[in-house]
Amino acid sequence: MSIQLSKVEKHFGNYHALRDISLAVEAGELIALLGPSGSGKTSLLRIIAGLESLDSGEILFDDTNVLTLSAKQRNIGFVFQHYALFNHMTVAENIAYGLKVRTRKNRPSKQQIEEKVAELLQLVKLDHLATRYPTQLSGGQRQRVALARALAVEPKVLLLDEPFGALDAKVRKDLRRWLRNLHNDFPITSIFVTHDQEEALDVADRIVIMNEGKIEQIGTPTEVYEHPASPFVYNFLGNVNLFKGRLHQGTLQNGDFSLQLPGYEEVQIEETVGYTRPHDLLISKQKIPDTVTALVTHIHPIGAVVHLELNRIDTNEFLEVEIPQEYFRNLEITKGETVYIKPKQMKVFVEDYVI
Amino acid sequence: MQKTSVFKKQKPFRLPGFSFTLGFSIFYISLLILLPLSMLLLNVTQLSLSEFWQIISDPRAISSYKLTIGSALIAALINVIFGTLIAWVLVRYDFPGKSIMDGIVDLPFALPTAVAGITLSSIYAQNGWIGQFFDFKIAFTPIGIMIALTFIGLPFVVRTLQPVLESFKKEEEEASASLGATRFQTIYRVILPTCIPAILTGFTLAFARALGEYGSVVFIAGNMPFKTEITPLLIMTKLEQYDYIGATAIAFVMLVFSFVFLFSMNCIQWLLQRKKLQGGRA
């Protein structure tokens, strides 16, 4: 089922939680709502689910307006961050719940329910734990029960509120792979909320990046990572180095160094910021023209990548550089050494400064 | 072999202070509860078995047991129903005067029972504020006894249920709704089962309290032998006639009944818990 949101607004008292949210989700897509806490992503998900009301705007499921429908009538599956399992029911009873509460006319027979539960238990690989109670399961197992329970009612839309937020790093990674595979096998339109960039980039077909109740950018993981639409998105998706300076005739003047920026020849700004990812910085031990001089203050080798923390000599600002392990070994950089830095590419957001 | 014996000798870890605190607890309970009870037992043993049986199976005593247990049971059940409702209202809704209402619930705890008894009997007497609207007598009948016992038992259910309802997560209700359950189904299938242990505890406390209640009942009961005479009053009457042995014999019956009741309620709670644990072993 496709989902269409247009001009959704929501206030909590004086707090403007959602501002003019419009979003189209195609049938069968897996969408991530990504943003820092307080960005309105969970409120938006709850509004789509019908667990929260909105002030104005429209929500269409397949061209049907669902605003007047309650959560019970929207035919959605909702997965909560803290599982929200029914602790007095066994795993099997939890999964069967959505089918058992149907009116007699729509309720499958006892045997059909049992078959459905068995099938779902197999899907989430918990068949051996059917008679356990939720309190006897680990966090990852509980979340899989919650997923099976949501899937039991065969929802047209699956909504997940930080589904892996309460789990530890390893389980989290396993579960999100599993969710990705599940979605490949059963392409239910799904929206999940997360504040973890890596998770969103890893799992989602498209990412909706939110900040302070607004949508900052919508795009595929590659699009949002490589072509961030705003400084916020650039900052939020991964680490970044800032070069504050004056942009004039396609050259950014920053401290002791200047950099040619192709494509910005027409723009002239007195104060702007250039953004560069840590892996887009060139590092050298020989002095070459138009480079930044910096001191190496920290070296963290993490797997295949070495993270360097540098201190600029001219502005005393902090820089982050990431280089491959092999390259690092060839350079033979040590702590306290002076190195020369040059951005391989840089992004300047002009629109923000036009006003 | 030697190795295993070494391991067996190792003591399991306990929080420090175990022997002292346990010792003190046993001493305290013995002094406060077991000593008076053994006194009771000792008094009863002065009777021969047939004498004892004669006293406790006296028709007047039997009708007092029936009245006491029956009215306490009905009062406790009424408290379960309305106490649950009040706890729900106090936890789930915000309204002006909520904290006052919350405080009033405790009044039956604090009020001297005699005051409660006198007040209730004057209200429910045939010319009282409420009693005048009814064709039948309320005060000085078993109905009056039940009203008094309901009055003193109310806080037990409300106060045991309140924290459980407060800790109930809103998400579980939302999950239930998103799975297609109606509001009634959510309450009946999700919220109520979570509250059952607390409701049982509240019921046990209210019932146990009602069994031993004396002060408030004597004023509203009328105290007619065979009709409105409760067991605690019967004991009191015997004491006033210097029949200490007879009084202890009846008291002993009440004691055994209370003990059996509390013990079986604990067993029920334990069974409910065990059912959960057993599920895991399958």
Automatic annotation (TrEMBL), chain A:
This is Sulfate transport system ATP-binding protein. Signal peptide: none annotated. CDD domains: ABC_CysA_sulfate_importer. Keywords: ATP-binding, Cell membrane, Hydrolase, Membrane, Nucleotide-binding, Sulfate transport, Translocase, Transport. The lineage of its organism: Bacteria, Bacillati, Bacillota, Bacilli, Bacillales. PANTHER family: SPERMIDINE/PUTRESCINE IMPORT ATP-BINDING PROTEIN POTA, SPERMIDINE_PUTRESCINE IMPORT ATP-BINDING PROTEIN POTA. Residues 3-237 form the ABC transporter domain. Its EC number is 3.6.3.25. Pfam families: ABC_tran, CysA_C_terminal, TOBE_3. It is an enzyme of class 3 (hydrolase). The keyword Cell membrane applies. GO terms for cellular component: ATP-binding cassette (ABC) transporter complex. The gene is cysA. GO terms for molecular function: ABC-type sulfate transporter activity; ATP binding; ATP hydrolysis activity. The keyword Translocase applies.
TrEMBL record, chain B:
GO terms for molecular function: ABC-type sulfate transporter activity. Pfam families: BPD_transp_1. Its main location: membrane. SUPFAM superfamilies: MetI-like. Part of the ABC transporter complex (TC 3.A.1.6.1) involved in sulfate/thiosulfate import. Keywords: Membrane, Sulfate transport, Transmembrane, Transmembrane helix, Transport. GO terms for cellular component: plasma membrane. InterPro entries: CysT_permease, MetI-like, MetI-like_sf, Sulph_transpt2. The complex is composed of two ATP-binding proteins (CysA), two transmembrane proteins (CysT and CysW) and a solute-binding protein (CysP). It is a multi-pass membrane protein. Belongs to the binding-protein-dependent transport system permease family. CysTW subfamily. It comes from the Bacteria. This is Sulfate transport system permease protein CysT.
